[in-house]
């Protein structure tokens, strides 16, 4: 039980990631695929952010910083690096999402549908603008 | 400012800044874009050769971004392998940019400005992946490359948006797996710098976290380079992309991915980890063998030239990965040499496909009848590239395949050596069929009334020319010149492959091989 509750953030990351992965692979609707992609990426962000946080720790800003040799207890401060990495990853995620939405618009203009099997049907019959 | 000192960052900054400037210039004067892009990429080629020269003469370059010391700041490390790949990518981008003028004017008349902007971003991403010495920085550049790639592929013909969409889904899974790998490594070691990781990791080789990280890296990169079971996005994407994009992307993107794979397997992790502790090379060897067979067999079945080339590309990725997985000196030399040769061959063949499509609108190989009279120079280039693909001496393709087969024999993997020969045979069948169509089948003269042609012109925006006469009608000079350079390159690389190996490639082989 401790194994599950003590590391609940990682369990949730795995569950979320699998939900997103399932949607990306198995769903026939292209919009649902993109939503799945977003969940997938968000799960990874959750994973990174939770690796950086510590119980009872504060933000990594040192108060009354005076002399260089001052001893700092690392356990009192969160690790800011994974969080900063995730800022970049969020930017990447948003732009991927934007590109995917733009592609969806193009696909919709061409085939008037978001359903993958309908599009394949149209392609088989050689219709489509 | 000392040019050589800052060359590692300049090579990324030049295309990045040029891509933004290009947009502004394009808004002002559209036709200035092309000379500007060619000039910018010319500078890139120049600085890439400066880097290569420096590395050959004085050894590895380390560049600190913003002056921060390596484990904390981002460091750019250039050794022989990097410098080699950077030179290939920037040279290809330059030649393809020269080639792009006419074909982009025909295929995307209203979008030239945006095309060049994204094209430069793609070049930035590819060069960034090769130059960086930081695993997270590599992820960012990987995503820049992919995003630019999605956009460029989506503006192609027919099914292009759908193909690009599938690529987005697959590519995102690949990139996310890579990112997870980075995360796991960071948890275990607390570092993102490649050199630092290489120092910290050996103590942790038996940790499960490291094994999982390695698996994530491998699967993520395998999706990006379209290694056999994960290749499904590639044929559609490269077939329907604009011809310039196919030529550039096919010749560089998979190669840079292969570079990333080499980096992870042999620099971040020690060779003994990838070879002995995990049987990664053994697994990759079988996967690559499957890719070689599968790509060649499906290539035989295709009728569309670009789709056929895409399947051959899958087989070529198999060759490169096979060379890496053989894990001995000959095999690795063959893989790195094949990265160079295959870039030239793929670019040449896709450029020929683009030139034919530009002049006749044909992409199906059955419509190539009689092209030898119409486009003799282009077809001559096709023959030389095809011979090189098959591996006929003295073309470049022969030498890299020679080393790969030597590697397979040295590793005593007789089956793989046989598969190399078998897939060469399949490639020979594919190309001799095209050559037969082009040179020996007489095209039927279909007389198309002039009225109907002009009507078709006005009806549809697509300017597919339906003329089938075989009178001399060669592609424009701006397309022919790059094709000639590529063809000459294939011959010269073959003749000088010994020099290339002794000057650069022998230093790229990881220690312990």
Helices and strands in order:
The complex is a heterodimer of chains A (about 130) and B (about 525).
Chain A: H1 2-5, H2 8-26, H3 30-52, H4 80-111, H5 116-125
Chain B: H1 3-28, H2 33-58, E1 61-64, E2 75-78, H3 80-107, H4 112-131, H5 135-154, H6 160-189, H7 194-200, H8 208-224, H9 234-240, H10 243-268, H11 271-277, H12 280-301, H13 305-326, H14 329-360, H15 371-374, H16 376-390, H17 396-410, H18 414-440, H19 450-459, H20 477-495, H21 497-508
Strand numbers in spatial order across the main sheet of chain B: 1-2
Range of helix content of chain B:
over 70%
How far the N terminus sits from the C terminus of chain A, by CA atoms, comes to 57 Å
State the total count of DSSP E strands of chain A: 0
Which value, in Å, is the CA radius of gyration of chain B?
22 Å
SS-derived structural category of chain B: mainly alpha
Report what the structure shows.
- The complex is a heterodimer of chains A (129) and B (513).
- Helices cover 68% and strands 0% of the residues of chain A.
- Chain A has five helices and no strands.
- The mean pLDDT of chain A is 86.
- In chain A, helix 2 (8-26) packs antiparallel against helix 3 (30-52).
- Chain A is mostly helical and 129 residues long.
- Chain A has helices at 2-5, 8-26, 30-52, 80-111, 116-125.
- Chain A has one domain (2-57, 75-125): Helix Hairpins.
- By secondary structure, chain B is mainly α.
- Chain B has a domain at 316-513.
- Chain B is built from 21 helices and two strands.
- Chain B has a two-stranded antiparallel ribbon.
- In chain B, helix 9 crosses helix 13 and helix 16 packs antiparallel against helix 18.
- The model of chain B is unreliable at 446-467 (pLDDT under 50).
- The chains are: A mainly alpha (129), B mainly alpha (513).
- At the A-B interface, helix 3 and helix 4 of A face helix 5 and helix 6 of B.
């Amino acid at each position: 039980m401790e194994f599950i509750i003590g590391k609940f953030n990682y369990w949730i990351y795995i569950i979320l990631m699998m939900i997103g992965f399932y949607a990306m692979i198995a769903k026939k609707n292209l919009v649902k695929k993109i939503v799945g992609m977003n969940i997938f990426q968000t799960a990874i962000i959750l994973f990174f952010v939770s690796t950086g946080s510590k119980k009872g720790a504060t933000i990594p800003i040192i108060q009354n910083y005076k002399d260089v040799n001052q001893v700092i207890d690392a356990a009192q401060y969160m690790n800011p690096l994974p969080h900063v990495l995730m800022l970049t990853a969020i930017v990447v995620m948003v732009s991927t999402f934007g590109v995917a939405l733009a592609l969806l618009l193009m696909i919709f203009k061409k085939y008037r549908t978001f359903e993958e099997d309908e599009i394949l049907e149209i392609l088989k019959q050689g219709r489509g603008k | 400012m000392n040019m050589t000192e800052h060359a590692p960052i300049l090579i990324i900054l030049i295309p990045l800044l040029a891509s933004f400037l290009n947009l502004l210039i394009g808004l002002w004067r559209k036709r200035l874009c092309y000379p500007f892009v060619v000039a910018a990429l010319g500078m890139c080629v120049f600085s890439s050769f400066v880097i290569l020269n420096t590395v050959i003469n004085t050894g590895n370059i380390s560049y600190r971004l913003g002056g921060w010391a390596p484990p904390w700041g981002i460091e750019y490390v250039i050794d022989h392998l990097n410098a080699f790949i950077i030179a290939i990518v920037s040279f290809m981008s330059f030649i393809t940019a020269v080639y792009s003028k006419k074909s982009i004017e025909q295929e995307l008349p209203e979008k030239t400005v945006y095309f060049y902007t994204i094209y430069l971003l793609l070049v930035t991403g590819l060069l960034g992946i090769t130059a960086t010495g930081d695993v997270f920085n590599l992820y960012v550049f990987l995503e820049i490359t992919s995003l630019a790639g999605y956009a460029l592929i989506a503006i192609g013909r027919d099914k292009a948006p759908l193909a690009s969409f599938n690529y987005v889904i697959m590519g995102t899974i690949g990139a996310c797996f890579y990112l997870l790998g980075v995360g796991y490594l960071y948890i275990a070691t607390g570092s993102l710098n490649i050199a630092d990781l290489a120092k910290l990791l050996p103590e942790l080789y038996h940790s499960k976290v490291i094994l999982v990280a390695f698996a994530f890296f491998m699967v993520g990169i395998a999706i990006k380079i379209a290694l056999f079971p994960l290749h499904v996005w590639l044929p559609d994407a490269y077939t329907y992309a604009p011809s310039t994009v196919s030529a550039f992307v096919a010749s560089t993107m998979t190669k840079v991915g292969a570079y990333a794979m080499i980096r992870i397997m042999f620099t971040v992790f020690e060779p003994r980890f990838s070879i002995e502790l995990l049987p990664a090379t053994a697994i990759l060897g079988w996967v690559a063998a499957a890719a070689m067979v599968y790509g060649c067999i499906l290539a035989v079945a295709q009728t569309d030239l670009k789709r056929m080339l895409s399947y051959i590309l899958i087989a070529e990725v198999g060759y490169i990965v096979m060379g890496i997985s053989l894990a001995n000196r000959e095999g690795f030399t063959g893989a790195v040499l094949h990265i160079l040769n295959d870039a030239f061959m793929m670019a040449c063949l896709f450029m020929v496909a683009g030139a034919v499509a530009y002049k006749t609108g044909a992409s199906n190989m059955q419509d190539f009848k009689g092209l030898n009279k119409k486009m003799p120079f282009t077809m001559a280039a096709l023959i030389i590239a095809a011979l090189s693909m098959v591996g006929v001496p003295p073309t470049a393709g022969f030498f890299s395949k020679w080393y790969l087969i030597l590697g397979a024999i040295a590793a005593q993997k007789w089956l793989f050596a046989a598969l190399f020969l078998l897939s060469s045979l399949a490639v020979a069948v594919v190309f001799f069929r095209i050559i037969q169509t082009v040179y020996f089948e007489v095209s039927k003269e279909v007389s198309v009334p002039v009225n109907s042609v002009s009507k078709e012109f006005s009806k549809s925006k697509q300017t597919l020319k339906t003329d089938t006469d075989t009178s001399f009608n060669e592609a424009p000079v701006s397309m022919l010149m790059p094709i000639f350079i590529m063809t000459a390159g294939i011959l010269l690389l073959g003749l000088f492959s010994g020099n290339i190996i002794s000057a650069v490639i022998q230093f790229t082989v990881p220690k312990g091989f």
